[in-house]
Design goal:
Largest sheet: 5 strands, antiparallel
Strand content: 15-25%
Radius of gyration: 17 Å
Distance between the termini: 50 Å
Number of domains: 1
Number of helices: 4
Structural class: alpha+beta
Helix content: 25-40%
Order of helices and strands: EEEHHHEEH
Number of strands: 5
Shape: globular
Protein backbone atom coordinates (compact mmCIF):
# COMPACT_ATOMS: atom_id res chain seq x y z
CA UNK A 1 0.00 0.00 0.00
CA UNK A 2 1.56 3.29 -1.06
CA UNK A 3 1.23 6.47 0.93
CA UNK A 4 -0.05 9.66 -0.67
CA UNK A 5 2.58 12.28 -1.38
CA UNK A 6 2.74 15.25 0.96
CA UNK A 7 0.39 18.05 -0.05
CA UNK A 8 -1.97 15.68 -1.82
CA UNK A 9 -5.41 15.03 -0.35
CA UNK A 10 -5.95 11.25 -0.27
CA UNK A 11 -9.72 11.83 -0.21
CA UNK A 12 -10.35 14.71 -2.61
CA UNK A 13 -13.78 16.24 -3.06
CA UNK A 14 -14.91 15.70 -6.61
CA UNK A 15 -16.55 18.58 -8.44
CA UNK A 16 -16.13 22.22 -7.68
CA UNK A 17 -18.95 22.45 -5.17
CA UNK A 18 -19.98 25.67 -6.93
CA UNK A 19 -22.82 24.38 -9.04
CA UNK A 20 -21.22 21.59 -11.06
CA UNK A 21 -21.17 18.02 -9.81
CA UNK A 22 -19.60 14.91 -11.26
CA UNK A 23 -21.60 11.83 -12.34
CA UNK A 24 -23.30 9.70 -9.73
CA UNK A 25 -22.42 6.14 -8.86
CA UNK A 26 -23.15 3.39 -11.38
CA UNK A 27 -26.47 2.59 -9.71
CA UNK A 28 -27.37 6.31 -9.55
CA UNK A 29 -27.46 6.56 -5.75
CA UNK A 30 -25.46 9.08 -3.73
CA UNK A 31 -24.92 9.05 0.02
CA UNK A 32 -25.55 12.43 1.63
CA UNK A 33 -25.60 14.13 5.00
CA UNK A 34 -28.00 16.86 6.02
CA UNK A 35 -28.81 19.11 8.93
CA UNK A 36 -31.74 21.37 9.70
CA UNK A 37 -30.84 25.04 10.16
CA UNK A 38 -32.52 26.56 13.20
CA UNK A 39 -33.09 30.11 14.34
CA UNK A 40 -32.66 30.29 18.12
CA UNK A 41 -33.98 33.70 19.17
CA UNK A 42 -33.08 33.30 22.84
CA UNK A 43 -30.09 30.98 23.19
CA UNK A 44 -30.44 30.78 26.98
CA UNK A 45 -33.98 29.36 26.61
CA UNK A 46 -33.13 26.91 23.82
CA UNK A 47 -36.32 27.23 21.80
CA UNK A 48 -35.94 27.35 18.02
CA UNK A 49 -37.69 27.46 14.67
CA UNK A 50 -36.50 25.52 11.64
CA UNK A 51 -35.49 28.02 8.94
CA UNK A 52 -33.57 25.89 6.45
CA UNK A 53 -31.70 22.73 5.52
CA UNK A 54 -28.20 22.03 4.27
CA UNK A 55 -27.32 18.93 2.19
CA UNK A 56 -23.84 17.59 1.48
CA UNK A 57 -22.73 14.67 -0.70
CA UNK A 58 -18.99 14.41 -0.13
CA UNK A 59 -18.10 12.04 -2.97
CA UNK A 60 -19.32 14.44 -5.64
CA UNK A 61 -18.68 17.73 -3.84
CA UNK A 62 -22.38 18.65 -3.61
CA UNK A 63 -23.21 21.25 -0.98
CA UNK A 64 -26.33 23.37 -1.00
CA UNK A 65 -28.51 25.09 1.56
CA UNK A 66 -32.07 26.25 1.24
CA UNK A 67 -33.15 28.78 3.84
CA UNK A 68 -35.97 31.21 4.52
CA UNK A 69 -34.74 34.74 3.77
CA UNK A 70 -37.96 36.73 3.41
CA UNK A 71 -38.19 39.15 6.34
CA UNK A 72 -41.99 38.95 6.63
CA UNK A 73 -41.89 35.16 6.71
CA UNK A 74 -39.10 35.26 9.30
CA UNK A 75 -41.13 37.73 11.40
CA UNK A 76 -44.01 35.25 11.47
CA UNK A 77 -41.76 32.29 12.21
CA UNK A 78 -39.29 33.85 14.67
CA UNK A 79 -40.82 36.75 16.60
CA UNK A 80 -38.67 38.94 18.80
CA UNK A 81 -35.51 39.16 16.68
CA UNK A 82 -34.10 41.63 14.17
CA UNK A 83 -35.53 40.03 11.02
CA UNK A 84 -33.40 42.09 8.62
CA UNK A 85 -30.25 40.93 10.41
CA UNK A 86 -31.46 37.31 10.56
CA UNK A 87 -32.21 37.44 6.83
CA UNK A 88 -28.67 38.69 6.13
CA UNK A 89 -27.23 35.89 8.28
CA UNK A 90 -29.25 33.32 6.36
CA UNK A 91 -28.25 34.80 2.98
CA UNK A 92 -24.61 34.55 4.06
CA UNK A 93 -25.17 30.98 5.22
CA UNK A 94 -26.53 30.09 1.78
CA UNK A 95 -23.67 31.93 0.02
CA UNK A 96 -21.04 30.09 2.06
CA UNK A 97 -22.69 26.77 1.18
CA UNK A 98 -22.50 27.76 -2.52
CA UNK A 99 -18.87 28.75 -2.14
CA UNK A 100 -19.34 32.30 -3.41
CA UNK A 101 -15.95 34.03 -3.56
CA UNK A 102 -17.09 37.30 -1.97
CA UNK A 103 -18.25 35.73 1.32
CA UNK A 104 -14.96 35.36 3.14
CA UNK A 105 -12.30 32.71 3.56
CA UNK A 106 -14.69 29.96 4.73
CA UNK A 107 -16.57 30.18 1.43
CA UNK A 108 -13.31 29.42 -0.39
CA UNK A 109 -12.75 26.11 1.42
CA UNK A 110 -13.67 22.72 -0.13
CA UNK A 111 -17.32 21.64 0.21
CA UNK A 112 -16.68 19.17 3.05
CA UNK A 113 -14.92 21.80 5.14
CA UNK A 114 -17.69 24.33 4.48
CA UNK A 115 -20.34 21.76 5.48
CA UNK A 116 -18.62 21.00 8.75
CA UNK A 117 -18.10 24.71 9.48
CA UNK A 118 -21.78 25.45 8.72
CA UNK A 119 -23.02 22.61 10.92
CA UNK A 120 -20.56 22.94 13.82
CA UNK A 121 -22.17 23.32 17.25
CA UNK A 122 -22.34 26.93 18.38
CA UNK A 123 -24.17 29.13 20.81
CA UNK A 124 -25.59 31.62 18.35
CA UNK A 125 -28.86 32.69 16.78
CA UNK A 126 -28.22 30.19 13.93
CA UNK A 127 -27.66 26.59 14.97
CA UNK A 128 -28.01 23.21 13.27
CA UNK A 129 -29.62 19.96 14.24
CA UNK A 130 -27.59 16.80 14.48
CA UNK A 131 -26.28 15.57 11.14
CA UNK A 132 -28.39 12.86 9.54
CA UNK A 133 -27.58 10.64 6.57
CA UNK A 134 -29.45 9.32 3.58
CA UNK A 135 -29.24 8.14 -0.02
CA UNK A 136 -30.65 9.89 -3.05
CA UNK A 137 -30.79 9.66 -6.82
CA UNK A 138 -31.63 13.37 -7.11
CA UNK A 139 -29.95 15.63 -4.55
CA UNK A 140 -31.76 18.78 -5.73
CA UNK A 141 -35.12 17.05 -5.21
CA UNK A 142 -33.93 15.74 -1.84
CA UNK A 143 -32.98 19.27 -0.77
CA UNK A 144 -36.42 20.50 -1.82
CA UNK A 145 -38.19 17.61 -0.04
CA UNK A 146 -36.21 18.07 3.17
CA UNK A 147 -37.00 21.80 3.15
CA UNK A 148 -40.70 21.06 2.65
CA UNK A 149 -40.67 18.47 5.44
CA UNK A 150 -38.69 20.32 8.09
CA UNK A 151 -39.31 23.98 7.32
CA UNK A 152 -42.28 24.77 5.08
CA UNK A 153 -44.73 22.40 6.79
CA UNK A 154 -43.71 23.57 10.25
CA UNK A 155 -43.43 27.27 9.39
CA UNK A 156 -45.57 29.51 7.26
CA UNK A 157 -44.77 28.11 3.85
CA UNK A 158 -41.01 28.48 3.50
CA UNK A 159 -38.91 30.94 1.56
Amino acid sequence: MSRPRLGRDPFPDHGSGKGGVSPQTEDGWEDYDFAVVRAVPHVHVGTYENVGVVVHARRIGFLEARVVTDEETLAAMVPGVDHALLSRYLLSYEAIAKGLDDHGPVALRPPSERFHWLTAPRSDVLQCSEIHGGRSRDLEATLRDLFETYVAQEGTGGA
